[in-house]
Amino acid sequence: MVRVEVRLFANLRETAGTEVLFLEFTKPPTVSDVIVELVARVPKLRRFLLTKGRFNERYKVLVGAEIVFPENFSKVLNEGRLAILPPVSGG
């Protein structure tokens, strides 16, 4: 089993009711696998993370210190941590 720690921030943390979720997979998952499992585990996150069945690109996915863009969600996780950051507004 492969265990992945998913860190959530701001509205995602509030919606999920926790800052950290642990997901288990039978083999090293892709970023996409993690997002699909996350939404399956916490269906309320769907309204933030998915738009018309696609990942909402306003949110950022980090694996380590690297941002992973949706076109690279087929990337297999070599480490057991992933973070999803909400949109940031500036002024």
Give a short synopsis of this structure.
The chain has 91 residues and is α+β, with helices and mostly antiparallel strands. The chain is built from 3 helices and 7 strands; from the N terminus they run E-H-E-H-H-E-E-E-E-E. It has helices at 10-16, 31-41, 46-49, and strands spanning 2-8, 20-25, 50-51, 54-55, 60-63, 66-68, 81-85.
What does this structure look like?
With 91 residues, the protein is α+β, with helices and mostly antiparallel strands. It has one domain (2-85): Roll (Ubiquitin-like (UB roll)), CATH 3.10.20. It is built from three helices and seven strands; from the N terminus they run E-H-E-H-H-E-E-E-E-E. The chain has helices at residues 10-16, 31-41, 46-49, and strands at residues 2-8, 20-25, 50-51, 54-55, 60-63, 66-68, 81-85. The strands form two sheets. It has a five-stranded mixed beta sheet with strand order 2-1-7-5-6. Strands 3-4 form a two-stranded antiparallel ribbon. Strand 3 and strand 4 (54-55) form a beta hairpin. The termini are far apart. The model has no long low-confidence stretch (mean pLDDT 93).
Which secondary structure elements does this structure contain, and how are they paired or packed?
Blueprint: E1 2-8, H1 10-16, E2 20-25, H2 31-41, H3 46-49, E3 50-51, E4 54-55, E5 60-63, E6 66-68, E7 81-85
Parallel strand pairs: 1-7
Antiparallel strand pairs: 1-2, 3-4, 5-6, 5-7
